[in-house]
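idk why but the lab printer keeps eating my pages so im just putting this in chat instead. protein + NAP:
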Amino acid sequence: MNQKRAVVTGGSRGIGRAIVERLLREGWQVCTCSRNYQDLVRLVEELGQEGLHVRSCNVGDRWSVKAFVEFCVERMGGLELLVNNASILGSRVSVEAYPEELWEEVIKVNINGVFYTTKYCLPYMGKGSLVVNVSSGAGKRPAPYWGAYAVSKFGLEGFSLLLAEELKGRGIKVYALNPGATRTQMRAQAYPEEDPNSLKPPDKVAEFLLKLLKAEAPSGSYDYREGLY
Ligand SMILES: NC(=O)c1ccc[n+]([C@@H]2O[C@H](COP(=O)([O-])OP(=O)(O)OC[C@H]3O[C@@H](n4cnc5c(N)ncnc54)[C@H](OP(=O)(O)O)[C@@H]3O)[C@@H](O)[C@H]2O)c1
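predcted complex ->
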């Protein structure tokens, strides 16, 4: 890659933030978003402005995503890497008990959001570019009581497969990346009884992604616990 420009959704904390930090250290320009603007202001204060562009955006709202992608392209001129990381957990209850509006919200953010971001970024991505969809073990094996989140991650694995086929001819690769249990706010929400110190920090996931990038790994579904190949 001659240029190193990335769009990362949900970069204000957790795994997204670790990816943003790592890419900046590796000399990338990064454009990121989250719904909470104050968190993005804090991110810039903590990481510095060099190479970092932020804008608030709700990936579940297509107009918001359109404006975010336009902002990124205006700032960076294009992109070589898209990391679809933003997602919400929803509720951990049975399908029967799952609140309808929450189900719709999770699908909107975790699936429609990935579709909008990918659709709007692709026109600015050339040969050698990469789309990374942050997936989950809940999208590979039945995870009872994970409801819309599990369904969205199964969808994301499928989306990654079809996108990889569609983009093969354009020289754009697609990874589905399962980070595994990681010390973040979402994990604490899912497992409030767990000791966060027993989990790996998010920068391990960023390191894994960088390894995949440097190894020029082919399109596929990658799992932190399984390593590279
Ligand atoms: N942590 C784990 O153990 C684990 C395991 C497997 C998979 N994952 C996956 O890893 C990814 C990152 O998770 P995480 O644990 O780092 O979560 P997290 O700590 O909750 O961080 C999520 C990030 O996404 C942003 N976000 C959420 N909804 C958004 C929306 N509608 N529009 C824009 N930004 C939004 C959040 O900011 P705002 O709330 O301000 O919008 C935040 O920056 C997710 O795809 C998750 O499913 C995590």
